[in-house]
Amino acid sequence: MDKTEYYLELKRVFASEFAFYLKSANFHWNVEGSDFYEFHLLFERIYTEVYGVIDQFAEELRALQLQVPASFTQFLQLTYVLDQTVPGDSKALVQELLMDSDTMAMKFQQLFMMAEEAGDHGLSNFLADRQDAHKKHSWMLRASLK
User: Fold this and answer.
1) Is the pTM of the predicted complex or chain greater than 0.85?
2) Which of 8, 61, 79, 107 has the CB geometry, 3.0–4.6 Å to 19, for a possible disulfide?
3) CA geometry: angle at 88 spanning 86 and 94, to 5°?
4) Among candidates 65, 83, 62, which has minimal Cα distance to 73?
C-alpha cells in the first residue's frame, strides 16, 4: 500500500469529520420551524458526539507523525463534506446532514481497511468506532425524516 495515499486519506477524513461537526453545529444554531426544538436537540446531540472525538482523532494522526490539518483553508481543500451557507427548512437540513453522515460512515469504512492493511490496528479500532457512530447518526436522521 502507498503510505502517501493512506496518510492523505487520514487527513481528508479528519478534515471531513471537523467539517461535519461544524455543519451540524451550524444546523443546531440556525434551524427554524414548528419542529425547531426536536431538530435543535438532534443536531446538538450529533455535534456534541462528533466534537468529543476530534481531539482523539488529531492525536491519532500525530502518533503517526503526521501534521494535523487545522485551518479553514486546509479543511476546504481536503474535506468530503461540503459547506452549507444557505439555511433551508428543517427537513432539508436533516436530509443534507444524513447524506454527509452516510458519506462519513463510508469514508471511515474505507479508511479502516487502509489502516488494517498498514497494520495500524489501534487506529483501525478507532476508525471502526467512528463508522459505527456515523451509522447511528444516519439512523436517527433517517428516522426523523419519516
Assistant:
1) yes
2) 79
3) 120
4) 83
